[in-house]
Amino acid sequence: VFMAQQGCNVTSVDISKEGLNKAEALAKQRGVSITTVLADLGEYNFGTEQWDCVVGIFCHLPPPIRSRVLQAIPTSLKAGGTFVLECY
After folding, report:
1. Which of 13, 57, 66, 73 would be 37's cystine partner, CB 3.0–4.6 Å?
2. Of 55, 79, 80, which is closest to residue 69 (Cα–Cα)?
3. What rounded mean pLDDT belongs to the chain?
4. Is this structure's pTM higher than 0.85?
5. What is the pLDDT of residues 17-34, one digit of tens each?
6. 46 pairs with which residues across the strands?
7. Residue 49 C-alpha from the chain's centroid
8. Where are the alpha helices (DSSP H) in the chain?
């Protein structure tokens, strides 16, 4: 929602419908629009040269799924795209 407030087109992908509902409600409250996708990242198709930026926050994945996701991200980014990952 913060990124949408900064003028970005935002697509939020989550396995939790409740989490997506909360994001949609917050976006509405803040007067911005976001696209939400209910999906399991283990099966999600990130596409090719589709995203300007991919941001992963609280994205705790089992090692095999994490490996697949991290391998898919570089080709999913447009030329000059950015990947931001918050991890600890």
Report:
1. 13
2. 55
3. 96
4. yes
5. 999 999 999 999 999 999
6. none
7. 15
8. 2-5, 17-30, 63-76
End-to-end CA distance of the chain: 22
Task: Indicate the length of the chain as a whole number.
Answer: 88
Q: What tokens appear for 88 in the block?
A: 């600890």
Contacts of 71 (CB under 8 A, 6+ apart): none
Contact 38, 17 (CB under 8 A): yes
Residue 72 has which token pair?
């898919």
For 47-64, give one letter per residue: b (16+ CB within 10 A) or e. Answer: eeeebeebebeeeeeeee
Which residues pair with residue 53 across a beta bridge? 82
Round to whole Å and give the CA distance between 69 and 31. Answer: 31
Tokens representing residue 66 in the block:
């994490």
